[in-house]
Design brief:
zinc-finger; CCHC-type domain-containing protein; mainly alpha; Znf_CCHC; 217 residues
């Protein structure tokens, strides 16, 4: 499809050119005369010679291809030479050392070099950086895991827990283990009243309780 300026000129050309004179040769000649300067090919070659790679190889190849496709009657040797001259220094040395004979071969060699050297280094550097960061953050990750495990444990009521500990200390009957001074004395301890000096069967408190529960006559 024609761009707007080209389609407008075509309608103008068709209206001004008789049907007998409308041929492909006449059309191309008039079109080139209208749209191209007389030194158009020389300008294209100059642009190719001045083109330089400033970014990645894909961008350079795209710009070079867009120009080379419009250049007429350019030898393969000149196409390769212009292309290599515009490459970055390291890529240029590598491609010239391979001595490519076609433009497509030169482009393939340049892509291969930059991917294996610059692209590969960037990938390796990223992996190395990630590994170092992982090592530096290992203590922090361990601490976070410990904190998370503590948060996952069932919550406890501090007041109830303190009361239970005090109660266990008060009512402990094992000599020498969380007991009061009276409880830690040697001798038997009553399982009913928890008082030392007698057994449950001799507990006066238990006997009094039992007597109080008996029905009166």
């Amino acid at each position: 499809a024609m761009e707007e300026p080209a389609s407008g000129w075509f309608l103008f050309w068709a209206s001004r050119t008789s049907a007998d004179e409308q041929s492909w040769g006449r059309f191309t000649n008039d079109a080139l005369t209208h749209f191209e300067a007389s030194n158009y090919q020389a300008v294209l070659r100059q642009k190719l010679r001045q083109l330089r790679q400033v970014s990645d190889i894909e961008e350079y190849n795209g710009k070079y291809s867009s120009l080379i496709f419009r250049v007429e009657n350019m030898s393969e040797v000149d196409q390769v030479s212009y292309y290599c001259d515009g490459l970055k220094r390291a890529s240029q040395a590598y491609v010239k050392l391979r001595n490519p004979t076609t433009l497509s071969e030169a482009m393939d060699q340049a892509v291969k070099f930059e991917v294996s050297h610059f692209g590969g280094n960037r990938f390796s550097n990223t992996l190395e950086a990630n590994r170092k960061i992982s090592q530096l953050n290992q203590p922090l990750r361990d601490q976070l895991l410990r904190d998370q495990s503590l948060r996952d444990q069932p919550s406890r009521n501090p007041t109830t827990e303190t009361y239970d500990k005090k109660a266990s200390h008060k009512w402990s009957y094992k000599p020498g283990h969380y007991g009061s001074p009276e409880q830690t004395r040697p001798g038997p301890i009553c399982y009913h009243c928890k008082e030392p000096g007698h057994f449950k069967r001799n507990c006066s408190k238990l006997n009094n309780e039992n007597n109080s529960k008996q029905p009166r006559e």
